[in-house]
Amino acid sequence: SQSSDALLCHVSHLKFFDRRQNPSSLPPAP
Q1: Can you tell me the distance from the alpha carbon of 2 to that of 28, in angstroms, rounded to the nearest whole number?
Q2: Total domain count for the chain?
Q3: Domain, as residue range, for 22
């Protein structure tokens, strides 16, 4: 469903953002 895909994309974006904001606690973004 579109709502499910949108949520997955949103969560993925948040993980990417957190990874960039906390390089010491998480591995660097590729």
Answers
A1: 30
A2: 1
A3: 1-30
